[in-house]
Amino acid sequence: MLPVERIIGEEGLTMADGALRLAMRLPWYRSLPFSVVEVESLEVDGASVDLSAAKIAYDGAEWPLAANGDQTNAFWFVRDSAFLIVPGQDLVPGSTHDVALTLYVSPPYIPGMKRFNTQAATLSIN
Amino acid sequence: MTTASGPQVGVTLYSFTNEWLLRQFELPDLLQEVARRGLGPNIEIIGFQNFKEFPDVSDDFAARFRDLVAAAGLNPVSCAINSDRFLKPGQQPIDDADLVEYHKRQLRSAKKMGFSLVRYQFALPVHLLPEIAPYAEELDIRMGVEVHAPMWAGHPAVQAYGEMYDKLDTPVLGWIPDFGGTASRIPESMLEAARRAGAAESLLDKLKEVWLEGGMSHEKAGRLREWALAAGHAPAHIQAASLAFFILSNNDPKSWAALVDRTIHIHGKFYGVSEDLVEEAIDYATILPLFRDGGFTGTIVSEWEGHAYDTRDAFLQVERHQAMCRRILAA
Which residue of B has its CA nearest to A69? Predict the structure, then answer.
C-alpha cells in the first residue's frame, strides 16, 4: 500500500467511555476540507458498525459524522490523523480485532472525481 | 545580488510526498535535508500540503517559516494554491465571491511567508481574473496558472486565459508549464507498477495502443475501460493501467514554444531519471532549450511524481533530475 492510500491511522484503535475511537488518515497528497470526505462504512470482525451516532474528532473539535458534509472550512491537515468515534461499543482493552474502513474522497478542484479508498487491518485495542 | 542569466533549477517539496505522509520529516527537517543535499536554494511548497494553518497562515507561523528558510539558506519562490470550488460533493460550486475570497486568503498567506509567486489552477473561472489580478498587484505577488495535463498550449482553456492575459496586460499574471502534458511515452516504471498490481500484459498492450490514438485523455481512459471490461479485466487492474491518462498526456513537446514569453516558473515533472540521466517519459532535450533560448530566467522545480505509484528514493531521483536539467541547459 502506498502512503497516499493509507486510511487507518498510526494511532490505531482505542476505547474510552464505551466509545470506539479509530485513527483515520486522509488518502490524498494535500489537506482537504472535511466536507469532501465521506466515511462510507466500518466493519469490526466482519460485522457492520452502526455509524448513525458516530462523531469526528480532530484537533480539539468534535462534530457528528452526519454533519461532516457541512465542514467546508475545517481543513484536515494531510499529516494528521482524525478520529472516528462510535459510542455504544464494548470492545475489551487488549483484545484484537479485524477492522475494515471505507472512505470516499471528492477532491474539491476536480469536478466529478470521487475516489474510493478501503483498508483492512488487525488492530489491538490500546 | 546577482541577476539570473538563464533558467535556475530547484525543487518542489511535492517530490517528497511519500516521506511527508509517512511522517519521516517535520517541516524544519525536510527543509534542512533539501538544503544539505544542495537541491535548492529555490523551492516550491504546496500550501495545503506542508502548512497546517493554510489557507490562513498566522503572522507567528509566517515569521517562523521565514526564519526557517533563511537558516537553511533556501529561497521560497513558489507557493502552490488551490481553486477549491466544489466544497460540497454533488452540489453546486461555491459562488464567485467566495471563490475570489478563497484565493485572496491564500495569496495573503503566501505573501507573508515570503513567496514571490503562487501557482494557481484553471479551476478558477477565467472571468474572475479581473477581480483577483488587482489584488495580486497590490500585494506585489505574481500568479502563474499551471498548464497541466491534459492541457497544453493549444487547449481552449489556455487560449481563453491567454486572451484575458492580453486584455489585463499585467506583469503579475503568467504561465507555469507542467511537462506532464507533453509526455512522449508512458513511463516504464508506471507500467511496471500496473504489472505489480496484477494488470495483464494484454491490458498494457492495449493501453499503449490507445495512448497513441487521438482525443482527450478522459476519452481515451473511457475507451480503454470499455475494451478492458469487455475483455474481462478486473476494475482494479483497469484503474492501475489508466493512471497514465489522468496525470499525463502526449501533446507535442515543441508546443511549449507558444507559452515561453509569459512563463514565470516551471514544473519539471518527471517519473524516473536513469543513471545516465535520461527521463523515462518526457523529452527534456527537446523541451528545455525552448525555454533557455527564449530567455526564461525563472526556476524549473524538479517535480517527481513517481510517488503516485512507487516508493523509490525521491531524493536520489531529484538529484538525477537536476543533473540532467543542468547538463541539457549547459549544452
Answer: B88
